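tool=predict chain=A
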Amino acid sequence: MGQYGEQKYWEERYNTEQAPFDWYLRYQHLKPLLAPFMTDESCILDIGCGSSKLAEELYDDGKKNIKCIDYSANIINKMQDANISARPEIDWAEMDVKAMSFDDETFDLIIDKGTSDAILCGTDSYAQLSSMLKEVSRVLKKGGVYVVITYGVPATRLPHFEKEEYGWKVDKLTTPKYEGAPPNQVYYLYVMKKVSEEKEEERNDQEDEVAVTIESDAPPKMSSPGAETGASPSTNEGNGDENLIDFDPPPEMQ
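tool=predict ok
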């Protein structure tokens, strides 16, 4: 499964694979979950689009301002050729999600269906995902939403998503893997809403008020273990390999 994080794997796969492939869920299942975050005028980005039919189905549902990126030139060329007549307004581009060429604050909605999961299967996965999330935050509009559809449980995903530097608030949703699935058979949707400037100022003011209150009520400081020797608390950065344990390859959906 480590190959899912490697560009060479996807180029070779798309060179031989002809049928569309959708990770996890198709648009008809995701539509009611995505609907609150988009209108027909929304500027939408599908990152790591692969051969998914998501963009095509969004387009057929009235969303015409769609951009799709993937670092596989092979699949971008195939998808562009397949849609040039029926869906000419979809913009397909070969691009690395960790170094996007879009302007700051371009998109109202960014959809990640399995791309984060693939990155977490690769080498130096934590740093690679961090680079991607910084870029996603950069190109997402204030008030815009980044939605991640994944098998990843909160314990393995929230530590990556809930970082102040990205400037968003994270909510978690779940949806059954299939109709009639037991309660423990779910996919997760992490919804990151970029904080507007007004909300950010309001939040900063609230944090300042809390800080003043805490400082005024705080007891005398106690030395932490190791303070006398200058020792630092131990850390375990990890490389993402533990994320492979809960990998649940979805069935191909035609």
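The helical segments are 7-16, 27-34, 54-60, 73-83, 115-120, 125-139, 154-161, 197-217. Strands lie at 44-47, 66-70, 91-94, 107-113, 140-150, 168-176, 186-194.
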